[in-house]
Amino acid sequence: MSQLSQRPTDPIVGESHHHESAFGHVTGAALYTDDLVGRLAGVLHAYPVQSTQAHAKLNSVDIAPAYEVPGVVRVITAADIPGVNDQGVKHDEPMLPVDEVMFFGQPIVWVLGNDLEAAKAGAAAVAVDYEPLPSLVSVRDAIEAESFHGIQPVIDKGDATGAFADAAHVFEGEFEFAGQEHFYLETQASLAQIDESGQIFVQCSTQHPTETQDIVSHVLGVPAHEVTVQCLRMGGGFGGKEMQPHGYAALAALGAKLTGRPVRLRLNRTLDITMTGKRHGFHSSWKIGFTAEGKILALDATLTADGGWSLDLSEPVLTRAMCHIDNAYWVPNIRVSGRIAKCNKTSQTAFRGFGGPQGMLVMEDILGRVAPKLGLTARELRRRNFYTAGQDTPYYQPVRHPERMEAAWDQVVSTAEVEAREAEIEQFNAGSENVKRAIALTPVKFGISFNLTAFNQGGALVLVYKDGSVLVTHGGTEMGQGLHMKMLQVAATTLGVPLSTVRLAPTRTDKVPNTSATAASSGTDLNGGAVKDACEQILGRLTQVAAGILGAPAHEVSVTRGIVSALSSKKTITWEELINAAYFQRIQLSASGFYRTEGLHWDLSIMTGEPFKYFAYGVAASEVEVNRFDGSYTLRRVDIVHDVGDSLSPLIDLGQIEGGFVQGAGWLTLEDLRWDESDKPSRGRLATQAASTYKIPSFSEAPEVFNVSLLDKAHEEGAVYGSKAVGEPPLMLAFSVREALRDAVAAFGAQPEPGGLGPSVELASPATPEAVFWAIESVRSPAMTVPAPTAAEGLSVPS
Amino acid sequence: MSAPATQRSTAQVSVNSTVHEFDGPPHTNALDFLRGAGLTAAKEGCAEGECGACAIMVARPDADGTTRWTSVNSCLLPAAALDGQEVITAEGLADAESVHPVQEELAVRGGSQCGYCTPGFICSMAAEYYRPERAEDAIAADHHCGPNGFDIHSLSGNLCRCTGYRPIRDAAYALGQPEAGDTIAQRRQKPAPTSASTDIHRADTATGEPGRYRRPSTLAEALDILAAEPETLVVAGATDWGVEVNIKGARAKSMLAIDRLPELRGIRRTEDYIELGAAHTLSELERELAGSIPLLGKLIPQFASRLIRNAATIGGNLGTGSPIGDAPPALLALEAQLVLTSLQGSRVVDLAEYFTGYRQTVRAAGELITAIRIPLPLAPMTSFQKIAKRRFDDISSVAIGYAVSVEDGVVAKARIGLGGVAATPLRADATEALLEGSAWTLETVHGAAETLAAEGTPMDDHRASAKYRTAMLRSSLERFYAEQEAGR
Questions:
Q1: In this complex, how many residue pairs, one in chain A and one in chain B, have their CB atoms less than 8 Å apart?
Q2: What is the ipTM of this complex?
Q3: Which one of A125, A156, A403, A730 is at 20 to 30 Å from A499 when CA atoms are compared?
């Protein structure tokens, strides 16, 4: 065991605790950014004027009428920006447009009013004169027009071109699938003021306070030390608050600076959906070769991410997608080309999995489609292609612990009684004409760390007060994932004090500077490492003090749950006595901690290296029931075995697994972003821009039976107290739902013989009831098959 | 008859046993009123009654004269509608010493992650916790209910993006019954606050426009107001109007609330029909009909969510004239009639004659829908098919109601109501005619499929394609037949 991963005796990590703010949540005492408005006097409310064109030149923007509206205090335009007019990090994303709007819904100017009603009325009064320009709305439009931006990386390993000659089976196809709206329950919110010390203080629902600070600072043209950003907590983030909050925070800060009054900028749901970025939809085209035994021999694929109008995080999302197209499978010869479509839509961004789900979906879709053509069940085809020890990824990183994936798979097959249930289902289906069932298993292998090595650092500030109480601040933000509880457990474990001795303060940039986003599932690894480091520094000093009091050598001193003892001493003292003594000995009782992940390297130009500290594994089995009359379905049962290393906090990890799974199932089945692709004036408008039209899973979509286990014997050497990241990987366990739907659809087709394989089924994503209905129709009456997306596919003879 | 209400400029609302004064602009919803008063537990997640983050509990009259704690979406409720009412929010369930059992269970079982939806869940759960019939349901072991009788449908209008719902369900099913000293439980034994006459005048702060909210105490008074001011906006549960206000910025200078008029409430039964008070909420109908109109028993659990059904009225669902309301297809199949009442008296209109165009009806200015009549006897074979993306809390892309009777193997009568396939809800006249007199067989059903598919003029939108809608009509009758055969 490494020093980082080893646990002391009787650790507090590993205990199950509810969320750190759980009682605040249930009583309403837990505050969110917009709950603070009533605590300030004279707050101004901001409301935007949104573009009603997908792409247009701005001939004129007449803001004068807004000032006629009672209660309007200020209209903010691009001309008011004293610093840099840019809300991103690629310098391609003006915070307010100067002469051109790039998507339907883009904010053009903002109106500040004494109340929201006045700001809205003011915004409605602003007159914008557009000169429409040609627009690209769909990813297909952009591909056809060759409209791309950013990098076009290539993974190239082995001989992807030549290897097809040796393949027994070659298939080609295309697959386009939709993105996903974050639908965090708390929309984007910022509250900015000039505080009593003259600094710009921004309360913001942000996953990345440091970058929010950076953007506020460069928009206002002031040094970063004049800006403090605080994030109390978020009402959900999921990646949607990694980049997206910055522009709104900067606008609020600018308003506060211009007017001297606090400014509240909270997007209502429709503003949020129509203005902020989403998970990237992708287009993929692929060619895959198999050996006669059904082993993947070669893959050649092109992935096109639907990036929207600006780059935002599209480049690293694309990179991660390409690095995850292998998912759990060994592909000896592989070529993957990536590119980012530039089109007139919201700028797509981070979303739980960050491209990983998109890359893996391409592979899982291929396997699901071709299995019947290979004469194998999809379950067998997947299992047959798992990585084994000694193999490496398409980017040459060795795959450590692939046996854990096999162990998880076998455990699910056994505990979920998959084989017995498959037999039951076959029997059920034979006697059921209108309703069919299916069960499917899919694996997850997900790389943990930011692909960009520099981001893999964390910071913390630990203060011990004279009474022994401990206050921890760290660089991570709390969005519901339970990071703060894990940090409390890490601090209490390292210091050897009870959990109640430690309190956590809100994340602020003037406590811990230069932090990375709480993203990439890395919050615990990075900040936990830093909290542990700070605590160890303090403990190191305290050990000397304790040795003197106990009359024992320092290396014998241990602190456990608030009791300080040493092997060779009969005396014990309390933590509080030790702290009191240390104070009078003039020992520093605070420390700032730091952590960087060791051993990472990555060369983007050739897409090779070891970008990930480790892989997280998981396996899910989902059983669905599908009704042929309307394509509707229910999720009858889900069984998951997931690898979280040695869990720091099992209840919290369980919550991440279940919640990630259901969110992934929402993406793949229910959540349906519809953009207006017509040539009407509403072209480019998002039609599903409210909770009434964009549907996230409700109680009715949750699995009826939901069994989740953590993988045993999963200690991770490379992470704090032997744990593994858990935020993102479980989302991708939901592929099992999609594949089960595919198999249930196949069960409506002609069955060659009892126990035989059904037809190959193509399924749209999201697999809404309507999409499932059409898939059923296509297998029930082959004449109805829609030819367009499938024309390229077919069994082709090796050349 | 009680005297008209005295005009006032503010409303008085009891929130968590403390009286708060509402003095905001007239269109202010209850959520913004509460948050403005510093009670920030209830959150805005969608502002259209879909997510439930704003849920609160309101003391409503129960059929037996006691009080029922009822969860509603505060974002859709005009603040003025709370005048004289009693409200409990998540803040009011805990006291200094201890938290409420629903709070305890949800917290310790990992039922909150980001916590933003949680106060709304707490209110929906608490209302179900105090549902008087829950103890009996615990014994009946309905499959929608947990071992403690907790009906999971009570949470159908609350969305959580973090947990995947399993721990929330476990928390709900772990709840016991209220303890003897529980003051919120005790409150149920006394009558609810009367629906006192309310007449509130407020000017809009932004525009200076006057605004008036009136809740008369009798039908006669309401009809007087409507006759004098035909442009006044009639609201019942405000679940449709609240969306217009929040999302589309609609404003009314004058609102007339009819949801508590005694003449519009309750269920009356005669030899010839069952009459449903137009201002009865869907939840009240669900409870009080108790399956006695089986088609409505199938419809109502699929109608929006419990939070909406607790506020939305059956009359309101018809009053909006929406082509995608869920009630009309079922009511058309039942050959329902509407009682329209004005100062000149009442008239009875067939629902099939009621809709004249997109959100247009035969209801004249000055008329109110006062009741819905369901003729007797009821057809023995009924079904309600709702086609939607999500099973709970969604808007239909197509909805189809069936009421069919078969005598000696021949269809004696068929009534089929359709929603979502035209600018108005409509009856499938051609299909009905084809079925009547035919043998009730799969051949007949197959033969009628294309006729049914041709009824209506469905369109493409973000909910479904026109082609799918047509396909749903085509497969509908076979589905109905299969259900009936399976149920025999």
A1: 253
A2: 0.96
A3: A730
